[in-house]
Amino acid sequence: MYKISYSRKAAKAISRMDRKSAELIKGKIDQLAQSPESMSNVKRLSGMEGYRLRVGDWRVVYTLEEARLIIAVVDIGSRGGIYK
């Protein structure tokens, strides 16, 4: 199982959203930590380092540190503005 590390920006984004969305996103990130290879809604980002996890209209941008078994959540945002 991977450990999850949230950046300050990602933690702030989760704290500002409604409870239902925050719990859904945290649940999906926990599933990702259990088995990153089995998630079907994950894609490698083009033009920048990392991956994105799609959770409804929300996107979770993260990096994967295989050697230390850490998922570093970089940012969480809506579909339209997360990649800017």
Q: In terms of topology, how is this protein built?
A:
Layout: E1 3-6, H1 8-16, H2 19-34, E2 42-44, E3 51-55, E4 58-65, E5 70-78
Provide a descriptive summary of the structure in words.
By secondary structure, this protein is α+β, with helices and mostly antiparallel strands. The chain has one domain: YaeB-like fold. It has two helices and five strands, in the order E-H-H-E-E-E-E. Strands 1-5-4-3-2 form a five-stranded mixed sheet. A hairpin with a 2-residue loop joins strand 3 and strand 4. It is globular.
Summarize this, please?
This protein has two helices and five strands; from the N terminus they run βααββββ.
Shape descriptor reads: globular
The fraction of residues in strands falls at: 25-35%
Question: What is the CA-atom radius of gyration, in angstroms?
Answer: 12 Å
H and E string: EHHEEEE
Which CATH top level class fits? Alpha Beta
Q: Report the count of strand segments.
A: 5
Largest sheet strand order? 1-5-4-3-2
CATH architecture descriptor text = 2-Layer Sandwich
* Helix share, percent: 25-40%
Number of alpha- plus pi-helical segments? 2
Q: What multimeric state do the chains show?
A: single chain
Mean pLDDT: 90
* Whole-number tally of structural domains: 1
- Beginning-to-end CA distance, first to last residue: 31 Å
Structural class: alpha+beta
Unreliable runs, pLDDT <50, ≥5 residues?
Answer: none
**Superfamily (CATH H level) name:** RelE-like
Largest sheet: 5 strands, mixed
